[in-house]
Amino acid sequence: AHIKTRGAGGADIGNVIPLCRSAHRAQHSFGIKTWATYTKFGSLDALKQLAVFYGEQYRRAVELGWTPGDV
User: Fold this and answer.
1) Angle at 71 between CA 45 and CA 26, to 5 degrees
2) Which long-range contacts (CB under 8 A, 24 or more apart) does 31-39 make?
3) Nearest CA among 66, 64, 55 for reference residue 14
4) How far is the C-alpha of 43 from the C-alpha of 46, rounded, in Å?
5) Cys-Cys link to 46, which of 6, 41, 55, 56 (CB 3.0-4.6 A)?
6) What is the pTM of this model?
7) What is the pLDDT tens value at each position of the chain, 71 positions in all?
């Protein structure tokens, strides 16, 4: 799920978190801020921190030679 939508200028790297299908649907139904508040994440800021972490891990993997097709 994108923290800041692509339409609002959000990037893919450092702006996404992985969600299962049901969580992704709920996030779209309630909106990212409301969904984040009522889940274990607790806040939009927590989601942003997680997205940055995943972005850093992705960049590191690419630097080490990983490509998205390797999964």
Assistant:
1) 40
2) 32/1, 32/3
3) 55
4) 5
5) 41
6) 0.74
7) 889 888 888 888 889 998 999 999 999 999 999 999 988 888 999 999 999 999 999 899 989 998 877 66
